[in-house]
Structure formats: C-alpha cells, structure tokens
Amino acid sequence: MQVWKFGGTSVGKPERMHSIRNLITEDGQRKIVVLSALSGTTNALISIGESLKAYNDAEAAEKINAMYAHYEAFIKDLYKTEAGYNAGKAIVDKEFNFIRSLVSIKPFTLKQEKEIVAQGELLSTQMFEAYLQEEGVSSALLPALDFMLIDADNEPVLSFTEENLTAMLSQLTDKEVFITQGFICRNPRGEIDNLKRGGSDYTASLIGGAIRAEEIQIWTDIDGMHNNDPRIVKRTFPVRELTFEEAAELAYFGAKILHPSTITPAKLRGVPVRLKNTMEPNAYGTLIADKTNDSEIKAIAAKDGITAIYIHSTRMLNAYGFLTKVFEIFEKFKTPVDMITTSEVSVAVTIDNSEHLEKISEALSQIADLEEHDRNQTIICIVGDFKADKAGVALKVIEAMKNIPIRMIAYGASEHNISLLVDTKDKEASLNALNEGLFTFE
C-alpha cells in the first residue's frame, strides 16, 4: 500500500479534486490519501477565531457567511448528480453549524481555536469522500482523530497510530482507497489538536511509517524539490534524488515544499518519500531514500528570521562546563540553536525563535559578556555529499561568495551540510551567486 498526500492548492478547486480522483484510481493500487484543507481555508478559520477572541461576533459571523458561500459554490461544481450535491451540502451544513456554535462560547479559548482550525480538513476530506462515492470508487473515510495522537511534549505517538490504524484497515479489506485528514490529531486530554502548520506532510509520513508503506508520495504544484529557490533564482532544476539526511537539512533550512518533520517517521521505518507534481503527474519528481546517487552538491535552501548571539568570556579559557552552562540556558527557555561556531574565548550561536531573547540574554550576561545581537539574518544551507575525504567543496562555496560578506560558517559537523550566515539584505545575491558558482547548466 502507498500513502499519497495532497496539499491545499491541489484540492483548492473542484476541477482539482476531479483530477485527484483520476490520479489515485488509475493505477488500481490500494492507497491511503491524506488531504489538507482547501487553499485559503485554514487562514480564513484562523481569522474567524481572532474575531471571536476579540468578542467581535458580528465580524466573525460575516466571515463565516462569506466562507460558507464559497463552499456552497464549490460543491455545486464538485458533484455531478443531485444525490451527490445533497450529500456534499449535508456535510458543509453540518460543519458550518459547528463553526457557528462556537460564536456563543465565551471566552474563546485555545481549545476552541484548535477545534475551529480543524474544520478545514474535516470539510475537505468528507466532501472528497462523498465525491468518490458518487463516482462509484471503492473508498472509505478514516477519521484521523481516531488514530493520530500527540503526547504531552506535542510529539506524535507512532505506536498509537500503528495500533489503531492497523485495526481500522483490517476491518475494511474490501476497500481500495482510504481518505483521511492531514494536520489534525488529539492531545493527551482527548481534545482536538494539530501537528502545527504544514503538518499534513507529517501526517502522511507518520501513516506511511506506521503501515510500512511501499512509498509515501507528497503531491504539490511544483516538480519536486529544486536545487534552489525558484522564486528568487531564475535558473533552477528539480533534484532527482536525495538521502533522508539531505532532505531533512533542506526542509529544516527553508525548502518550502517539505515540512521539516516529515522525513523522521519515513526514515525510521525505511519508507521512501517521493515528491510529485499534480500539474505534471508523469514527471519524475524527487525521490528521498536511504541511498541515492553521489552527486557532490545537490541543493541550496535559505532560512530567514535568524538572530545571531555573540558570547565572550575570558573565563572560557580552560573553563570546564562553560558550554554546558550556555546551552542549559537555551534549554531552559526551549529555544533551539541552529548554528554554532567557537573560538578560545568566544561562542556565536543563531536562533530562529526570538520569543525569549531578552530572558536568554539576561541569563547569558550572568556568565559572559554579550555583543549586540545581529537580527534580520539568513542561514543559507548548501546540501550534498561532503564526506571528509572529498577536497575542494568548501573552496567552491567560498569562491562563489567572494563578493558577499559572510557572518558565520558551519562546516564539518555533518557530511551533508555547509551553512553560511548572511545579512538578509544579501540573501538574494547569495542564492544567485551560489547557484552560478556551484551548478553546471547546459
């Protein structure tokens, strides 16, 4: 069995859903199909929630009515028969009745926020399943809330998914296609929760790992993962193959096509992940697996919103435990460090979450001297096969960046990653310079 995931733009129009129906049924293979909310829906639901939190019920009602009108128009074009349309309308009415019921709840808490955001996936999957039934497809709906669980640390419980999903599938051996929701889950209290934004990719990977799928396919609207950001760099191309480690580095450092957490469950169970294009389904896309070709430099990604912290201490000289104290401070405030470089008396680190920056700075100042932080920085990650016995890779990178100031360099901790820190104003120039300096174009 395979697991296929389709994002919001892939299901954002009725004709897109029609195309997906053809895609998932043409090979005759059993599969679990994970769907996101229709494009724009999650943002609309968040906006409704913000109005309700502000006690602006009239504004919330106006937004709900506008969203309902969109869905009414959507189902008119999605279904071909009166019975199909009636089934779709019943689904839309049911979910919007629930959304409207939240208007009367005061105060509008985090629990209700998560409940309202979940309606996007509940709507898209039920509507699509009703469409498959209208088309006579042998299909069934698998409610994600029955098998997706996060623990107290907001981490998915893979064993729970494996046990409950396997049991559900064992009762539906006569079905060919299974539809389920991405993104949503339950927390330890049994409440509706989610895997954060972009979490539909994560859902697909968790499901694929749980059932030991033949392959996980992530369908988007571009040809796999490109060697550079096509929104900034003119000459880019899709990367045919990546290792799990390479793909994880690229996702974490800004490759938008893939959610950073997606790779972990697939890698754990050795399930290949393929990135495909709904607009060009016959294109090869990008295959992510244990082993790939040994291309030296494969791709570049960039991560914005970085703050650099410079820590100086003469006490670092032969000072046992200094770094431990530094990282205990970041651990205390649950703030991950992206990059780190050290000298004998200095440490420089970068973070992408500055929520607790003032408290971190105050704590660090008790054990060291701090320079003024560098905000508005960008980490540029160059990914490939950089094994220790390969010479000249770093030289190529530095040569390509010869006209652009580099604030930090991290190289050697990974066989797959060279990271550079630059001022965000130099990001576009950096990506273009690296593209021209590191890749060969015909």
From TrEMBL:
Domain named Aspartokinase ACT: residues: 380-436
Domain Aspartate/glutamate/uridylate kinase, first and last residues per copy: 2-277
Known EC number: 2.7.2.4
InterPro entries membership: AceGlu_kinase-like_sf, ACT-like_dom_sf, ACT_Aspartokinase, Asp/Glu/Uridylate_kinase, Asp_kin_monofn, Asp_kinase, AsparK_Bifunc_asparK/hSer_DH, Aspartate_kinase_CS
Alphabetized GO MF terms: aspartate kinase activity
Pathway: Amino-acid biosynthesis; L-lysine biosynthesis via DAP pathway; (S)-tetrahydrodipicolinate from L-aspartate: step 1/4; Amino-acid biosynthesis; L-threonine biosynthesis; L-threonine from L-aspartate: step 1/5; Amino-acid biosynthesis; L-methionine biosynthesis via de novo pathway; L-homoserine from L-aspartate: step 1/3
SUPFAM superfamilies: ACT-like, Carbamate kinase-like
EC class name: transferase
Pfam families: AA_kinase, ACT_9
Reaction(s) catalysed by this chain's protein: L-aspartate + ATP = 4-phospho-L-aspartate + ADP
Keywords from the named record: Amino-acid biosynthesis, ATP-binding, Kinase, Nucleotide-binding, Transferase
Domain of life of the organism encoding this protein: Bacteria
UniProt record similarity statement: Belongs to the aspartokinase family.
PANTHER family the UniProt entry points to: ASPARTATE KINASE, ASPARTOKINASE
Protein known as: Aspartokinase
